[in-house]
């Protein structure tokens, strides 16, 4: 808004009126949401955050395995990620059961590369229609989100903090849970902001 105000100095009096800032921010937000480039930005950022989330999880697990005190936490976190991945793959196989094996393989690879949330968001935002799919993209996204959120609730519910407490003597291990938690928080904030 400030850049727009500085660029169009002729409108300075208009922008000083009460409520104009809120009004213009709403218009800009709607333009960004409804435009092709806004969707590309949201989906690209969502894909980046999804892959970053997977990378921070893998990094956290690998650093936990480096400490003898955190083997149990690493195994538990790996099991929870694996359960989430298996549930997403089973959902894909159920939704795309009428499709050829190439489509099923492509959808499974999307799950394994941690891109499922971004692909689901893209399909919902573009009103993707697939006559052979058992469920529409919104239902598929909701099912996958339920699995992901329940897995994260179990995984995030003290595992990282307990790992941090157990590894207090190893300072290099304390950064990875923080990084993973911060990335999850930014992804949740992004998803809630882009859904409106």
Tell me about this structure:
This protein is an all-alpha fold and about 200 residues long. The protein has two domains: about 1-35, no CATH class; about 45-195, no CATH class. About 75% of the residues lie in helices and about 0% in strands. It has ten helices and no strands. Helix 5 runs antiparallel to helix 6 (about 100-110) and helix 5 packs antiparallel against helix 8. The longest helix is centred in the first third of the chain and has 30 residues, at about 35-65. The model is unreliable at about 155-175 (pLDDT under 50).
Major β-sheet profile: none
As residue ranges, the low-confidence spans are: 157-174
Overall helicity: over 70%
SS summary, helix count: 10
Name the structural class: mainly alpha
Number of strands: 0
Number of separate domains: 2
Radius of gyration: 21 Å
Mean pLDDT: 75
Task: Note the overall shape.
Answer: flat
Strand content: under 5%
Order of helices and strands: HHHHHHHHHH
């Amino acid at each position: 808004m400030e850049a727009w105000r500085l660029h169009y100095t002729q409108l300075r009096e208009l922008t000083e009126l009460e409520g104009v800032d809120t009004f213009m921010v709403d218009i800009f937000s709607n333009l960004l949401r409804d435009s092709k480039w806004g969707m590309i930005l949201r989906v690209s950022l969502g894909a980046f955050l999804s892959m970053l989330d997977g990378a921070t999880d893998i990094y956290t697990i690998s650093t936990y395995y480096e400490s003898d005190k955190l083997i149990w936490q690493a195994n538990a976190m790996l099991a929870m990620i694996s359960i989430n991945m298996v549930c997403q793959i089973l959902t894909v196989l159920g939704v795309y059961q009428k499709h050829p094996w190439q489509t099923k393989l492509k959808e499974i690879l999307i799950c394994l590369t941690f891109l499922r949330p971004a692909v689901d968001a893209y399909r919902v935002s573009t009103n993707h229609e697939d006559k052979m799919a058992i469920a529409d993209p919104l239902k598929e996204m909701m099912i996958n989100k339920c699995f992901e959120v329940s897995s994260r609730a179990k995984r995030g519910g003290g595992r990282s903090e307990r790992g941090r407490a157990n590894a207090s003597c190893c300072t290099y291990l304390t950064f990875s849970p923080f990084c993973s938690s911060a990335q999850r928080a930014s992804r949740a904030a992004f998803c809630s902001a882009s859904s409106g």
